[in-house]
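thought: fold this chain, then report.
action: predict
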Amino acid sequence: MKIIKSAFSLLFLLITFLLIGCNGASQKPTLNISDYHKLADNDVIYPSVKQLEMLRSVIPEEAFQPAPDINNRTYWDKISKTETGEKWLHDAIGLIGKQPEVPISDSIYRRANKEGNRGIYKPRYYRTMGRLEGFVLAECMENKGRFLPQIETYLNAIMGMKSWLHPNHDDDDNGVLEGRRVSIDLGARRFGTDLALAQVLLGDKLSKKINDKITEQLKWRIVDTYLTSCKKNDENNKWIKSTSNWNSVCTSGSVFVAMATSNDENERIEAIGSALNSMKYYLSGFGQDGYCSEGAGYWNYGFGHYLYLAQILFDYTDGKINLFEAGNPEKLRNVGLFPYTYQIHVGVCAPFSDGSSHVSNDGGFAYDMSARKYGLSMPITPKKSKSHDSFSAAFQLIEWDYEAGTKINDKSLELQELPSHTYFDDFGIVISRGQQKVPLSIAIKAGHNAENHNHSDVGSYTLLLDNDFMTGDIGAPSYRAGAFAKNNPARSSWGHPVPRINNTLQSNGIEFDGTITSTSFSNIEDVVVMDIREAYEIPALAKLERTMKNDKSGFGTISITDEFVSTEPVEFGTAIMTLQDYEIIDDNTVIITSENQKLKVEVLGVGGQVKINDELVPVKHLREKGPAYRIGVDFTTPVKEGIIKVKYVPITPN
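observation:
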């Protein structure tokens, strides 16, 4: 009897062991992204053999389904009763008679390419995309078939376009328009995403002819060209190794198309593997401290699409690929909090590079996801208006899952009052915040002259009195023909509050940089010293040091002091930049007046006599409006060494 019991015990243990083993074997491991990157083939984006082996253990065999299709009436009936669902449906009904605004004519395409004129095509592109997305979601909610004719009309119109590119992203000879090549840009990836969404959500509600054509077009225009570029690192889609928003935006769209529509399991794995390698480059564009050199506006756009990619990969692999941490959770959290930490005052930031001067949660996906994953808390605009690309239908599908509680809102961190200062030490950016009732504050940068959306701006700064921009960086030229030219006055160092030496401006390239050599921070006074000599190709220049001092006592004063030494006499000057009204009192005094504030500028020269000469910045279209003025402060004769100090003092009402 004991022998029988022992046998049963052994059999029970054996069965238990086998069951545990089987269950354990069915649990796919989580991908270690750091280890994955170590197995890459040099600098090739396409995954190596060993990387592909790692991916096969975490990626499902079936294609990705971003949301239940139209036949799941339980899901879509529930969505139709939500506030956002009702709004999507209401808006779609109101647009049902609108015809697609693509294709645009070849002549308009060529003109837009030549002139860099976005206004004659971009609104048409995005209105067409937005309407199609609305019709697709509305049909899924309503399920009556009345949107289907419009959906097929829009799909055919998009597939009838010779090129999905923004025309100014084609080459000078319009190679994509003429059919000599095919590539992916910010517009093409969204056209592809919209076609893919229509196919996977509506399925056989669309005609077989349309479905077959979508499959063919997406493979040709998106999947094949993406994977080819990843294998070759060619110039056709050179954004695959970029640190700019292009990488995350175009990658997320390309990979979504492959994941959701490709019938080839290997193709889906290859696309995902390429994306993981590509995102290593994208994230390297941020500092460990989270600084985004493209500014808060491009953070919203680029990081929003990175977070979208992170979410769909997390969903597709049941959490086994986690780009929300990407092997460096501290850095990702800092990036997620960037719009908060970058503020000079609440809702206002420096318009360095091509960045925007105002930060607000416009209801965009990046803000929502960063709140969930990293604890970002930002002022919310009352209307929660969504820009054309900060909240597409693809993003809305994810939002509905969070609203329904099928996804967990992980974080709940309420960020409090902005600190007295913020120091992004990786890029050399300091934000020194006044502590007065009417705060006088400044953001100042060292950086280098090859940053994303770069301006030649080592040493540039932005000064605020309360929320009025009084002086400093005038921001970016509007995107028109010539906007990205290095000699554009608003992009070159001439249009920034930095020195000009022997009529020579700063040079462009990563080697032309500034270095913060010392800092001192307190609630009473902040001092930052930076060496900016390397930003200039002037052999005779032995020293060029810029010191920012923010005295926070009383009503506050901020001074910018440039000290230089040269082996031979040089012409030396700096600039006071402003978008406000001003009056030159004498060669040592300027009064700057904004709508609400008044600032006195005191100029001191040591080593020679200085003069003031003002000029209109010859750029008609600036993102920060305008007109803008350059108030030059120059020594009257060449000197071997000297100091120019510019001191800003608030003029307070009596």
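thought: worth noting. Residues 2-26 form the longest helix (25 residues).
final: tokens above.
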